[in-house]
């Protein structure tokens, strides 16, 4: 299972990085457009941009949440192996070595990004920070 996951993340892991970057850029651009051109946009365009922002944020937020829960559950499985009732000392030693060799499964690109339960907070914080900076930059003009 771990080998299949590693191969899949080699292909799809880079998509998590690209997906997050594109989502943050898209949502930030929509927020900037709303802040910059609020008085010039008609009501339909305002609603359309707001709905696109909400949809993209919710979609990527749910993706991060599900990926984070996958990582937590994978970690719990590895920790649950401590409570196995094994008969011989040889089995216990073998299971301890096997447990050390296994890593929790996580979405992301190995060495660059691992999606955990905190990833959604980082995502929302990044969007909020960029939007506030855009608002402050527009007030200075």
Which helices and strands appear, and what pairs or packs with what?
Elements: H1 2-36, H2 43-80, H3 89-101, E1 108-109, E2 113-114, H4 119-140
Antiparallel strand pairs: 1-2
Helix pairs in contact: 1-2, 1-4, 2-4
Description:
The chain has a two-stranded antiparallel ribbon with strand order 1-2. The N and C termini lie far apart (55 Å). The protein has one domain (2-71, 106-140). It has four helices and two strands; from the N terminus they run αααββα. Helices cover 77% and strands 3% of the residues. The chain has helices at 2-36, 43-80, 89-101, 119-140, and strands spanning 108-109, 113-114. The radius of gyration is 22 Å and the shape is elongated. The protein is mainly alpha-helical.
Can you tag this structure with a few keywords?
elongated
In short:
The protein has 141 residues and is mainly alpha-helical.
Class from helix and strand fractions: mainly alpha
- Neighbour order of strands in the largest sheet: 1-2
Task: Give the rounded overall mean pLDDT.
Answer: 90
How much strand content do the residues show? under 5%
Helix content: over 70%
User: Poorly predicted ranges (pLDDT <50, ≥5 residues)?
Assistant: none
Number of helices: 4
Biggest beta-sheet profile: 2 strands, antiparallel
Task: Compute the separation of the termini in Å.
Answer: 55 Å
Principal-axes shape call: elongated
What is the domain total for the residues? 1
Rg (C-alpha, Å) = 22 Å
String of helices and strands: HHHEEH
Query: Would you count the extended β strands for me?
Result: 2
């Amino acid at each position: 299972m771990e080998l299949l996951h590693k191969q899949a993340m080699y292909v799809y892991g880079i998509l998590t990085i690209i997906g997050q970057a594109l989502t943050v850029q898209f949502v930030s651009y929509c927020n900037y457009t709303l802040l910059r051109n609020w008085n010039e946009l008609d009501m339909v365009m305002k609603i359309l941009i707001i709905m696109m922002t909400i949809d993209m944020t919710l979609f990527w937020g749910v993706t991060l949440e599900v990926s984070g829960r996958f990582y937590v559950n994978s970690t719990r499985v590895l920790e649950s192996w401590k409570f196995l009732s094994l008969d011989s000392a040889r089995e216990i030693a073998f299971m301890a070595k096997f447990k050390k060799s296994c890593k929790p499964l996580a979405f992301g690109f190995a060495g660059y990004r691992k999606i955990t339960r905190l990833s959604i907070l980082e995502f929302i914080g990044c969007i909020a920070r960029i939007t506030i900076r855009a608002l402050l930059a527009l007030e200075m003009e």
